[in-house]
Amino acid sequence: MYPRIWLITGTSSGFGSELVKEVISRGDKVIATARNVERISHMKDIGAATLQLDVTASQEVLNRKAEEAISIYGKIDIVVNNAGYTQFGIFEENSHDQWFTQFNTNVFGALNTTRAFLPHMRSNKAGVVVFIGSMVAWDGLPALGAYCASKAAIHYAAESLSKEVEPIGIKTLLVEPGAFRTELLNQAPSSRSISKLEDYRTISEAVAKNFDDFNGNQPGDTVKGVQRIVDVVKGENEASGKPWPALLPLGSDAVSTIRNKCEQTLRDLEVWEAFAKSTDI
Which phi and psi (to 5°) does residue 160 adopt? Predict the structure, then answer.
């Protein structure tokens, strides 16, 4: 089968960096992108093309970047929206600007990048758009509200997009990993945002300590995680012959979190079903 062309955002570390290596090892071609292209210049040594791309740029700029990317190999088959970061902080203390910045990268960045490539995919009546979400879309965590909400927004945006583009030959893949040993938590401890308000201090200190202790001890193997993503996109190995997944949890913790949330939701529906239905005309 002919090599497919991948464009991956946020490839300077973590899932993005490992995806570049895995995709190339499978015989496909990659355009690796980052805000600072110098940080990924070494990827040329393994055969990747590199492109400066800031997902928070305007739609006009992203549209031009899409044209530039397409011109490298003549097409783009798969877009992976991986760029993102984690915003810590108590809801009451996080500012509008902090929430906006979190959504501007994690949500609008992914949506605008996707929008820039959709005309190309529509013209080909083919393509795959991958969104790297998170298990926290299913179960919000204290002192992490902006991040959890951004991943929940991506979850439902991807779900809606899938129903719009599937009839014209474009697939979407929503990946919701658990905790993997990436650089996502490699922030200064001060960035965990201990609350200045006494009422929230205990919980914010506990969250900060939990994440600091957890960093480097996450159960997920990043290499295995990206292998599973590529397996699904290419229909290879254990994904061969399986139906395309509505969402792809990665990691035993992600499976457990999603299952527990679904079971709790069903229990709540059982208790409140008659009450809820009583509002019908």
Answer: -65, -45
Contact between 142 and 131 (Cβ < 8 Å): no
147 is annotated as an active-site residue: yes
**Residue recorded with tokens 């899938």:** 162
Under a CB-based contact definition with an 8 Å cutoff, are residues 248 and 232 in contact? yes
Whole-number Å distance between alpha carbons of 212 and 214: 5
96-139 residue pLDDT tens:
999 999 999 999 999 999 999 999 999 999 999 999 999 999 99
In a domain, 269, yes or no: no
CATH number at residue 203: 3.40.50.720
73 is catalytic: no
Q: Which domain holds residue 112?
A: 5-251
Query: For residue 275, is it within any domain?
Result: no
21, 29, 65, 147: which one is catalytic? 147
In the chain, the number of structural domains is 1
Complete DSSP assignment for 203-230: HHHHHHHHHHHHTT--SB-HHHHHHHHH
From 21, 29, 65, 151, the catalytic residue = 151
Q: pLDDT tens-digit profile of 220-254?
A: 899 999 999 999 999 999 999 999 998 999 999 99
